[in-house]
UniProtKB/TrEMBL annotation:
Short name of one Pfam family: GASA
Domain of life: Eukaryota
PANTHER family linked to this entry: EXTENSIN, PROLINE-RICH PROTEIN, GIBBERELLIN-REGULATED PROTEIN 5
Membership in a protein family: Belongs to the GASA family.
Signal peptide feature range: 1-27
Protein name, entry field: Protein RSI-1
Keyword list, A-Z: Signal
């Protein structure tokens, strides 16, 4: 009986750990987005700029390639390495 209780406790503990770590990955922004998630994420990302049209164009392009959009309206690009490292021909950042 003791062996069965120990296995049950181990199973419950493992499930709790799995749930905890899956939430951490999603909260950090490293979780891959679905292509359908790009438009709402980019709409928020570009909400604070006065250049909404080009911001949305490049954000959607970057999101569709990288499946990631940094949190917030500015900065935080280190959360999405692909998004952060994509550069223009001139060497500037391609993604807003």
């Amino acid at each position: 009986m003791e062996g069965r209780a120990r296995r049950s406790l181990l199973l419950v503990f493992s499930l709790l750990l799995l749930i905890t770590f899956s939430g951490v990955a999603e909260a950090s922004g490293n979780a891959k987005l679905r292509p359908s998630d790009c438009k709402p994420k980019c709409t928020y990302r570009c909400s604070a700029t006065s250049h909404k049209k080009p911001c949305m164009f490049f954000c959607l392009k970057c999101c569709s390639k990288c499946l990631c959009v940094p949190p917030g309206t500015y900065g935080n690009k280190q959360v999405c390495p692909c998004y952060n490292s994509w550069k223009t021909k001139e060497g500037g950042p391609k993604c807003p």
